[in-house]
Amino acid sequence: MPTLLTNDNISQRELVMTSIEGAVVLVTGGRRGLGAALVDEVLARGARAVYSTARSAFDDPRPAVTTAVVEVGSQDSIDALAGIAGDVDIVINNAGVLLPAPLLTGEMADVVNTFDVNAFGPLRVVRSFAPILAANGGGAVVNVHSVLSWLGGSGAYGASKAAMWSITNSLRTELAGQNTHVLGVHAGFIDTEMVSDIGMPKTSPAVIAARILDGLEAGALEVLADDTTVAVKAMLAGPVENLTFASSH
Asked: Belongs to which family (predicted)?
């Protein structure tokens, strides 16, 4: 079964349980897929307001939802959002890009863009919103990684998610002093448009969203959101040659 990992000794941090009810939540990449499911789920759990972002303009008719065009590759774009979203309590970094070309033969521009969006993008968001979270009592940061963080064979995507895993673990230490709860999420394949061509078992976005928020509210430091991720995490102490991803189409 998926698991929630807690640890009370990260920088001597006491376990923080983050309440979604009454909170103001930012979800990057909230237009569709897992992001849209996260917006739905935080509203169902009583969030007071949600900022939902995408790279192009979109509408959400619900009064509690404010949509915004944000490019996570641009610090100016993120700072502009922070200028109007000073009430945010919870930041969920979900936006990402999948450019699966091989590292050796793919366009180098695609490799750089993948890291810029998947690794540096969430870091930019946290750097911009950390002072806001501190001013609002600490709050929480949720970073969505991938089971491919731990598996070779998925090109720049997996490498960028591995970098994000490390960034999350460092941010947890750096943000402990302001009482910000940092949750890292690892998930296998989610039934979204991004991975529709990959012939692997997939979990619905709604199920993954619920597991993420269960972990957040329980004070988890890491959520392993499906059985595949649990199995791969258990393999990290074994032979490195076993940590290879192979897809079927």
From this structure: Belongs to the short-chain dehydrogenases/reductases (SDR) family.
